[in-house]
C-alpha cells in the first residue's frame, strides 16, 4: 500500500510502496520539545509512546467507550492474554473525547 501524499520512506526520502516506517515531512515538528496529542491526553514528554504502543499490531476503532472496553475484555479472553475480568485502564482517561484500551498487540479505541 502506498503512503498518502507527503509521506515517504524515512531512509530513502522517496515515496515507497512497501511496509516501512512512515516519515512525515514537517520541519516544524523537529523544533518542538513536546508533541502533544490533545484529544488523547498523551504527549511525548509525559508518556513513553514507543514503550506503550510499540508492540501494537491491531487497531480496532468504533462504538462507545463501554463497547471498546468490552471488546478488549473479550480479546483478552479469546487470546488468553490476561484475565478478561481484570481492570483495563482507559489510556485516554484525562479526556472525554476518546477512550483507548490495550491488551497485548491489540489497541481498542472509541
Automatic annotation (TrEMBL):
Signal peptide: none annotated. InterPro entries: Nucleoside_phosphorylase_sf (IPR035994). GO terms for biological process: uridine catabolic process. It comes from the Eukaryota. One of its GO terms (cellular component) is cytosol. Gene3D superfamilies: Nucleoside phosphorylase domain. One of its GO terms (molecular function) is uridine phosphorylase activity. This is Uncharacterized protein. The lineage of its organism: Eukaryota, Metazoa, Chordata, Craniata, Vertebrata.
Amino acid at each position: 500500500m502506498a503512503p498518502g501524499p507527503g509521506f515517504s520512506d524515512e531512509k530513502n526520502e522517496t515515496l515507497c510502496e512497501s511496509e516501512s516506517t512512515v516519515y512525515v515531512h514537517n520541519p516544524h515538528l523537529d523544533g518542538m520539545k513536546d508533541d502533544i496529542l490533545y484529544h488523547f491526553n498523551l504527549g511525548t514528554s509525559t508518556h513513553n509512546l514507543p514503550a506503550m504502543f510499540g508492540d501494537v499490531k491491531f487497531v480496532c476503532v468504533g462504538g462507545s467507550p463501554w463497547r471498546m472496553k468490552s471488546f478488549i475484555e473479550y480479546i483478552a479472553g479469546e487470546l488468553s492474554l490476561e484475565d478478561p475480568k481484570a481492570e483495563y485502564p482507559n489510556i485516554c482517561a484525562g479526556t472525554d473525547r476518546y477512550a483507548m484500551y490495550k491488551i497485548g498487540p491489540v489497541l481498542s479505541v472509541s
